[in-house]
Amino acid sequence: MTPTASPTLTQVTYYRIYADSQGDSHLDVVTVGQSLAQGAPPAAPFYISEDRAASKYRFYTFEPGWIGELHPAPTRQFLALLSGEVEVETTDGTIRRLGPGDLILLEDTSGKGHVTKNTGDGYAMFLVVPVPAP
User: Fold this and answer.
1) pLDDT in tens, 62-89
2) From its phi and psi, is residue 91 left (phi > 0), alpha (psi between -120 and 50) or beta?
3) pTM, two decimal places
């Protein structure tokens, strides 16, 4: 019997904040498909998405109670929350709570931006990967 893949294994979902032509920020959900492939022979096949450009990484750590008032993203960047709890709010009023393992792509490098808050009791740490425009 051949095992069948769960749809949740064959895709990755992340949040995306972007600015519209009036400078207002919005949040949506993006899903990236993956295919079963030989990614690291002789290891068994695993699920892989298509390649996307990235060349460096950094970490952001926010102290408890930290609030990043309304600001645009400094660069187009992926953030992966490693620890803590964070809330992001866009200018259209959407609020999203993020926990460890959540991914978000910040593309609102112009316009009004977004608000970020460390809502947890401890430090919130992100792995940050700047990415070029598509």
Assistant:
1) 999 999 999 999 999 999 999 999 999 9
2) alpha
3) 0.88
